[in-house]
């Protein structure tokens, strides 16, 4: 559940929290694109380090570290798979360059987790819904999306309770082979699904009894407006993107690998 | 026998839910754990079958430390019925639901059949044997959840808020059932806010507040102590309230049982007539 924790929004006021969610999202997508187009370790390292000031400015370092820790297992998995495949496909030799490129792939994943984590940690579900609405997404969909995001931690907690209840009836989740283990989760998944459906029906009734959708034309109490900081971030994002695309596709610069500098 | 010694427990988010709690529950005892929301009641009882392990201190069930064994092993002797039945029901029929735990514990097919019959009968669910538990009403689902735990006949039974959503008749049945378990020397622990239900049963009452035990004693004493109950934001049972109001007239304060109340009032009436 620690991965969810790393994505859970907490209300704090910081310059990063106050940024327009749409611009923040564009920034995250830009980072995503840049992380995908480069496969060398140096630009990925730059991307990784570049986001640390954001984290510090938003004062979410603790939750952010937790989300990275949550991703550590998957990162290790990616690293091992990469090393293994390069090892088997290059005549059973393991070179420093291979390890470096595996590390770069892992770092790419970490950068993605990092940037999405910063986005979700600093953007309230309300802002997110507002951003969707202002991007012309129908209100019903925007509402469904924000509700889903909001219920993730609730669901995680509920899953824990259900696991406890079934363990108390002698269910051993860790018992048996792989197939058996998957089957062990049936008594957990069914109550989780059933109670989610039950909850959503109750939510729908509660919303309708509070006149949800009574007015066709909705207005919002808060409106998203771009401020100085948003323009700054937008400019910053554009510069990164343009620079990255230029360096990667149009310039004669060859990005060196770190291992080239090692006396091997 | 359940022995908790200086149990401390903190959740991963660093909230200290239990601050050095010690309690011994003997075989055959009937204990009601009461206290306001967030007092640590549920956290505490989850230590009795090993669902939670103490951060410090020890919990022993029949002499075995809960940290040294599995929940499944402990659950064979300590049955735990959760508050919300929807957190455990998943089978196609009520019958299957009850057999789930029995299969987990490795009972024989023959025994499982007998146990299902027994549990269905006990909680008047026989007519729903082949019904899907999801089609039942809230109160009935709660009874199915209870039946599914009772079926393996554990020595200790822990009930988390058993009276919520139950009508008076079902509460009365629950009370009689607990009394019946008492005659079989079974241990029953309930976690509840239902002060009237506790007053009717008159068990040993353990009062918790902010992760500590603030009182432990006979129900009759604790439930008639306004200062103590105020501390845990529990109101006095109605009969106790009445007798507290009547105490200036010379009535005793420590009355929670309706039959006792009747006796006292009749006696007072009699003595007045004689004057």
State the helical fraction of chain B. 25-40%
The second-level CATH architecture of the largest domain in chain B is 3-Layer(aba) Sandwich
* Contiguous runs where pLDDT drops below 50 for at least 5 residues of chain B: none
Shape, principal axes of CA atoms of chain A: flat
Summarize the structure in words:
- Chain A has 264 residues and is mainly alpha-helical.
- Chain A has 2 domains: 1-123 and 226-264, no CATH class; 137-223, no CATH class.
- Chain A contains 11 helices and no strands.
- Chain A is flat, with a radius of gyration of 23 Å.
- The model of chain A has no long low-confidence stretch (mean pLDDT 86).
- Chain B is globular.
- Chain B has a 6-stranded mixed β-sheet with strand order 6-7-8-3-9-10. Chain B has a 4-stranded antiparallel β-sheet with strand order 2-1-4-5, with no helix packed on it.
- The longest helix of chain B is centred in the last third of the chain and has 17 residues, at 258-274.
- Chain B contains 11 helices and 10 strands.
- Chain B is of the alpha/beta class and 275 residues long.
- In chain B, 39% of the residues lie in helices and 21% in strands.
- Chain B has 3 domains: 1-77 and 155-234, Rossmann fold (3-Layer(aba) Sandwich), CATH 3.40.50.300; 91-153, no CATH class; 237-275, no CATH class.
- In chain B, a hairpin with a 5-residue loop joins β1 and β2.
- The chains are: A mainly alpha (264), B alpha/beta (275).
- At the A-B interface, α8 and α10 of A face α2 and α3 of B.
């Amino acid at each position: 559940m620690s991965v969810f924790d790393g994505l859970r929004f907490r209300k704090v006021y910081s310059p990063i929290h106050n940024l327009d969610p749409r611009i923040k999202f564009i920034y995250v997508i830009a980072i995503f694109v840049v992380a995908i187009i480069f496969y060398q370790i140096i630009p990925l390292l730059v991307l990784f380090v570049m986001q640390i000031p954001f984290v510090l400015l938003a004062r979410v370092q603790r939750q952010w570290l937790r989300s990275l820790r949550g991703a550590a297992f998957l990162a290790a998995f990616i690293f091992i798979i990469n090393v293994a495949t390069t090892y088997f496909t290059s005549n059973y030799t393991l070179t420093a360059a291979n390890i470096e490129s595996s590390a770069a792939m892992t770092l790419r994943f970490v950068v993605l987790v990092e940037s999405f984590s910063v986005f979700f940690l600093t953007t309230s579900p309300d802002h997110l819904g507002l951003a969707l609405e202002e991007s012309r997404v129908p209100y019903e969909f925007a509402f469904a999306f924000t509700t889903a995001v909001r219920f993730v931690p609730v669901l995680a907690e509920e899953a824990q309770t259900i696991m406890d209840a079934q363990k108390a009836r002698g269910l051993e989740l860790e018992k048996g082979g792989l197939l058996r283990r998957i089957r062990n989760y049936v008594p957990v998944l069914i109550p989780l699904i059933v109670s989610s459906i039950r909850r959503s029906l109750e939510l729908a009734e509660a919303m309708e009894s509070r006149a949800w959708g009574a007015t066709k034309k909705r207005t919002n109490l808060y409106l998203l407006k771009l401020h100085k900081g948003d323009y700054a971030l937008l400019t910053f994002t554009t510069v990164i993107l343009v620079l990255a695309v230029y360096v990667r596709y149009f310039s004669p610069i060859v990005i060196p690998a770190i291992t080239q500098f090692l006396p091997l | 026998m359940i022995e908790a010694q200086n149990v401390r427990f903190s959740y991963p988010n660093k909230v200290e839910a239990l601050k050095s709690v010690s309690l011994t529950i003997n075989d055959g005892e009937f204990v009601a754990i009461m206290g306001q929301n967030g007092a640590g009641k549920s956290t505490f009882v989850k230590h009795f079958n090993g669902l939670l392990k103490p951060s410090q201190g020890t919990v022993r069930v029949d002499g075995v430390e809960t940290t040294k064994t599995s929940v499944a092993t402990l659950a064979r002797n300590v049955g735990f019925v959760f508050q919300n039945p929807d957190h455990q029901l998943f089978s196609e029929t009520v019958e299957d639901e009850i057999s789930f735990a029995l299969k987990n514990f490795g009972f024989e097919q023959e025994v499982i059949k007998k146990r299902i019959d027994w549990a269905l009968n006990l909680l008047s669910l026989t007519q729903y044997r082949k019904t899907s538990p999801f089609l039942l009403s809230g109160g009935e689902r709660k009874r199915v959840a209870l039946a599914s735990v009772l079926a393996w006949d554990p020595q200790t039974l822990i009930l988390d808020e058993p009276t919520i959503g139950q009508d008076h008749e079902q509460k009365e049945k629950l009370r009689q059932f607990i009394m019946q378990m008492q005659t079989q020397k079974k241990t029953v622990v309930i976690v509840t806010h239902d002060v009237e239900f506790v007053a009717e049963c008159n068990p040993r009452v353990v009062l918790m507040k902010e992760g500590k035990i603030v009182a432990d004693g006979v129900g009759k004493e604790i439930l008639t102590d306004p200062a103590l109950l105020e501390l845990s934001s529990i109101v006095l049972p109605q009969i106790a309230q009445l007798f507290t109001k009547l105490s200036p007239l010379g009535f005793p304060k420590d009355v929670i049982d309706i039959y006792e109340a009747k006796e006292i009032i009749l006696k007072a009436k009699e003595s007045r007539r004689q004057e």
